[in-house]
Amino acid sequence: MLANADMTVYEKDVYARHTIADVYWNDSRGRTVAKNGVQISDSVIVYLYSDEYVPKVGDVIVRDIVDFEIDSSSQKSISEGMKSFREKYPGFAVIKSVNNCMFGGLPHIEITAR
Fold first, then answer.
1. Per-residue pLDDT at 38 exceeds 60
2. Are 47 and 109 within 8 A, CB to CB?
3. For residues 33 and 13, what is the distance between their CA atoms, to the nearest angstrom?
4. Can you tell me whether residue 86 is helix, strand or coil?
5. What's the mean pLDDT in 95-112?
6. C-alpha to C-alpha distances, 37 to 33, 40, 80, nearest whole angstrom
7. What is the pTM (predicted TM-score) of this model?
8. Could you give the CA distance from residue 69 to residue 51 in angstroms, rounded to a whole number?
9. Whole-number Å distance between alpha carbons of 97 and 39
10. Cα(65)–Cα(85) distance, rounded to whole angstroms?
């Protein structure tokens, strides 16, 4: 089991916060300059080794355990909360795919985010 970080997940639409310890986080976001312009290659790959909470496509993730709460009582408070969240945690990513591999010799859940 490879583990180099902890993470926080904010559920899509309800913005409930979940913390997950001991994950493998590989952040390969960056830019390269090519002949035809700037190429943006941004992806975060995360391996979870527990299926206590399985994130979904569209959930927001951030590396490390953070205690930021987003008030989901109204659309206005969600907008203001997300604006503050983006300013405070610019390294966040949105989950694009979830692959459940909880079987075999190294059971894990593979998440790809941008």
1. no
2. yes
3. 36
4. helix
5. 95
6. 6, 10, 34
7. 0.86
8. 23
9. 22
10. 14
Helix, strand or coil for residue 89?
coil
Say how far apart CA 67 and CA 69 lie, in whole Å.
6
For residue 30, the model assigns a pLDDT of 63
Mean of the pLDDT values across residues 11-16? 92
- Would you state the structure tokens that stand for residue 4, as one six-digit string? 């180099």
Measure CA of the first residue to CA of the last residue in the chain; give whole Å. Answer: 24
Phi, psi at residue 59, to the nearest 5°?
-65, 155
Which amino acid is residue 104, in one-letter code?
G
Residue 75 CB: number of other CB atoms within 10 A?
8
Q: How far apart are CA 107 and CA 93, in angstroms?
A: 23
pLDDT at 18 over 70: yes
74-97 pLDDT, tens digit each: 889 999 999 999 999 998 999 999
